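Feature request, filed as a ticket because there's no other form

It would be nice if the structure record came with a short human-readable summary line next to the tokens. Right now we just get the raw output. Example of a typical job, pasted below so the devs can see what we mean:
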Amino acid sequence: MLDRARQRIEAKAEPFHSYWQLARAEAVEGLSLTPKPYLGRDALAFHGEAQTQGIAARLLAYQWRLEDDAAAGAHAVALLDGWASAMPLPGSDFDPKVRMPNAGMDVARGMLPFVAAFDLLDGHPALTTEKRVRIEAWFRSLVDVVKEGIRRWEANDDFGGQHFQNHHVSHTLGLALFGAALRDDTLIQLALDSPDNPKDFKELVAGLILMPGDEPLGGLRGKPLHAGEIDDRVRTGSGAGLTYCHLSMTLLLYTAELLTRVTGEDWVNWTAPGGECLRLPFTFYSDFWRLRNAHLHGDYYFRDQPHIQNNTPFLGSFEVALHHWPEVPNLKAIVRSMNRARTPRSWLCYYGLPLLTHGTDRP
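Raw output as currently delivered:
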């Protein structure tokens, strides 16, 4: 995918060239950053600081891979190594009384850009054996935080019976991220399918994605249940159901791609025994975001109407979805409706530069 991205940039093909110019401008700003590892004990504060510096490292790593800018790659390595060299290791010693249910999620989501940067930087001369060992030791220390997050949710009946939701996806994503980075087959299996992970990837596809006849959290509220809805839908009570559903399916698709890459098997298209698969939620929810209309499909999400007007949701995942399911008309329609050359920060937290890595020429 990176080879194709380079070709598009060199040919100044649109909208890919303009997209990269915007991202590159932000990458250049990253050259002025110095490592500022978060050494406190608040998981949410760690999440924010790690994402900010991780996004910068990831963009700089892209600049090296796409333009052979060795200095940009070296600075990305310096950001990673600066965090990995700090003591105590950032993110490894949170106060259990602060955001107790959230620490595992905060680490997994907060570290995604840093781990992605580490992957992109493989082969850069600045990533010496000494630095690689140090960075991997930091990653290894964070695995325990993710595992503790899994344990806390299981021990507390998923905090009010929320048996399938975005925290669980984040935990399994974290196991897959660190498993891939550390080339640890045991962690990969724990993420994919293991009795030691009650919400592994297979369980999440089968349980998080709903089908007619299921009993969603919060009940039906007199509305129909459609194939592909996500159990985070209950958050519509606070006006954020669509946003949380989109977050969960985005992270689950990222996890599926990662597991596909490291195992050689197709987990993006895996279908659970009940018919649940990732294509269903991306198809179902695409029209809500394309039309900015929370009243569709039975009006269950009507409380989300103010929130869905947000102009920069992380819709780059629909570029990824269309890459995998090019025959789905709903996905073509939403990608055609988007300003594809924009790179809002919310995309960078998760899929990085999805138009360059996954985008189709003519949706």
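Something like this underneath would help us a lot:
The chain has a mean pLDDT of 94.
Residues 129-155 form the longest helix (27 residues).
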